[in-house]
Amino acid sequence: MLEGPAAKPLVGKRALVTAGPTFEPIDPVRGITNRSSGKQGFAIAEALARLGAEVTLIAGPVFLPTPPGVKRVDVETARQMLAASQAALPADVGVFVAAVADWRVDEAFGAKLKKEKGGPPALTFVENPDILATLSASGPQRPKLVVGFAAETDHVEEHARAKLARKGCDWIIANDVTQPGVMGGGENAVLLVTKDKTERWDRAAKDAVAAQIAARIAQALA
Ligand code: CTP
Ligand code: CA
C-alpha cells in the first residue's frame, strides 16, 4: 500500500460525477426513466475520493448509500442534473456516468391521468439538454478533463468514437451492455476511447474498474 502524498494524488483537485438514471415525470405518479443501477458512477465517486479528490456526486434516483467523503446532491430530472452539475463547477475533472433520459414529456400533467378518460394519452416528447456536451463546451469553466460514458449494444468502439467527437469530451468509457452481468450487475468490461487510441480493459468488478479509472484520471491531472 502506498502511503503519504503518493497514495492521495488528487488532494486539492475537484471532481464532479453524475450517476444513476434520471426520472422524467408524465404526471404526479408516472414517468419515464432509464435502466441504471448507479453502481458504476458511485464506485467512481468513491475511488476519486479515496485518492484525495473533493468529489460532488450528482445522483438520479437510486437506492445506494453515499460513498464516504463524497458530497452528494440528489436530483430527479435531466434539467435538475444539468443545473446541479453547473453549480458544482469549477472542477478539474467531470465524469458523466449518468444514464440521462434523452426525452421528456413536453409538459408534465399536474394531476393524475385517468384510464377511463378515453384511452391512452398522446404524449409529446422533447429532447433533454445534453449535460456532457454542455459541460464540455463550457469555455473557461470547462473541467480540464471531461469523461463521458457510453452504454452500447453493438458497434461499441465505433459508436464511442462518434460520441467522443460529437460531445467534445476527452475520453469515452464504453461498455457493451448486452454482456451478462453488466446492466445492474457487479461487473464491467470497458473500452477507454481517447482521441488517439482505444484500450480494451479486462472484465472486472465495477469497484476495480472504478479504481482503474480514478488512477488514470490522477495520472492525466498530474
Ligand atoms: N449524457 C448527458 N446528457 C444527456 C445524454 C447523455 O450528459 N442528455 C451523457 C451520458 O452521461 C454519457 C454520454 O453522454 O456520459 C453518452 O450517453 P449516451 O446516452 O450513450 O449518448 P447519447 O448522445 O444520448 O446517444 P444515444 O442515442 O446512443 O442514447
Ligand atoms: Ca442517450
Structural overview:
- There is one protein chain.
- This protein is an alpha/beta fold and 222 residues long.
- 25% of the residues lie in helices and 28% in strands.
- It is built from five helices and 14 strands.
- It has helices spanning 39-50, 78-87, 131-136, 156-167, 206-221, and strands spanning 14-19, 23-27, 30-33, 54-59, 70-74, 93-96, 103-105, 125-127, 145-152, 171-176, 187-188, 190-194, 198-200, 204-205.
- Strands 5-4-1-6-9-10-12-13 form an eight-stranded mixed sheet, with helices on both faces. Strands 2-3 form a two-stranded antiparallel sheet. Strands 7-8 form a two-stranded antiparallel sheet.
- Strand 2 and strand 3 (30-33) form a beta hairpin.
- Helix 1 (39-50) packs across helix 5 (206-221).
- 35% of the residues are buried.
- Cytidine-5'-triphosphate binds at residues 18, 78, 96, 98, 100, 102, 128, 130-132, 148-151, 163.
- Keywords: Decarboxylase, Flavoprotein, FMN, Ligase, Lyase, Magnesium, Membrane, Metal-binding, Multifunctional enzyme, Transmembrane, Transmembrane helix.
- In the N-terminal section; belongs to the HFCD (homo-oligomeric flavin containing Cys decarboxylase) superfamily.
- Pathway: Cofactor biosynthesis; coenzyme A biosynthesis; CoA from (R)-pantothenate: step 2/5; Cofactor biosynthesis; coenzyme A biosynthesis; CoA from (R)-pantothenate: step 3/5.
- GO terms for molecular function: ligase activity.
- Its cofactor is Mg(2+); FMN.
